Amino acid sequence: xxxxxxxxxxxxxxxxxxALVVVTRVVGLLTAPSDSEALKxxxxxxxxxxxxxxxxxxxxxxxxxxxxxxxxxxxxxxxxGVIGLGAAILGSVFMAGDWWFEAFAVPWLAEVVPxxxxxxxxxxxxxxxxxxxxxxxxxxxxxxxxxxxxxxxPTALSWAVVASGLLSAIPIxxxxxxxxxxxLGLAFIVLGAWLMRSGNPRDAHGAAASPADQPDRSxxx
Length: 221
Prior knowledge:
Layout: H1 2-30, H2 36-42, H3 46-112, H4 123-150, H5 155-168, H6 174-198, H7 201-213, H8 217-220
Helix pairs in contact: 1-3, 1-6, 2-3, 3-4, 4-5, 5-6
């Protein structure tokens, strides 16, 4: 029953999660500060507050959409699918945590000890930040590869997930990382629309495989 509920929820969850990811990444790119002084101002704005909280929700919704969509291709994705699923969930949880820090800790620092924001991240903070992006990228890279192999979802969308993972795992420039997330969000939007139009691909996959799975009764006669 739970599996059926997940399968029925996959399309709307994918569309909502994908849209939230795209919108929050675009807003983040458009409002990204150019230096530490601008950062102190930006993080105290309503736009930053709303977008940061929306980012937490976006990555949480992404996990729900991932689990729901995986229920449609789990048998075909096999062990690699399970590994990719776990890695993508872990990476998304880390990213949600990163945005919790952006939403609540950074504005507090800007108000109480703004001089802290003059110094670039280092030590464990830098390690944690890099870990979030790398885990997120590797997780979605693995899941994209599993989806390509499973051949349940459109191949182009699965390759888009692979590309998003590659870009997201390179924490060098903001537009590269955000670009990877935008690609991922767009892939989920299109996947959700495809699921609404085509129905449950797992049923179609099972129906296509069933004739080969059944014994040849003519030989048994």
